[in-house]
């Protein structure tokens, strides 16, 4: 019996606010870079990341042109969704309002405002990366 989620189940799961782990290849001599990150997603859409343009993660994603993203539950019943695909767009700037909207998913209205205000200097260094999910893996142990 397969424990894979249906297309609708995995998209709904991925659309929930979770901290993801992004992985991107880092050449032949190293394993992939694998780091936690906030992300955005709506069913049927693209994965959206906001990160510093000069970060190692951004440099590697630019070079590879694709990345993987995994989200999971940490309590039973364990579930996960992993997606991999090509970068479709890299927007070279992000506004303060766009950062606040993105942070709201994780911190709520008040927390997002405080977060952006406390990291205001970072706004000019941020980029938005979009990825089209092509390969999906999932499991629901419930």
Automatic annotation (TrEMBL):
Residues 9-118 form the Pyridoxamine 5'-phosphate oxidase N-terminal domain. It holds the Pfam family PNPOx_N. Gene3D superfamilies: Electron Transport, Fmn-binding Protein, Chain A. InterPro entries: F420H2_bilvrd_red/Heme_oxyg, Pyridox_Oxase_N, Split_barrel_FMN-bd. GO terms for molecular function: coenzyme F420 binding; oxidoreductase activity, acting on the CH-CH group of donors. GO terms for cellular component: cytosol. Keywords: Oxidoreductase. PANTHER family: HEME OXYGENASE HI_0854-RELATED. This is Pyridoxamine 5'-phosphate oxidase. It comes from Planotetraspora phitsanulokensis.
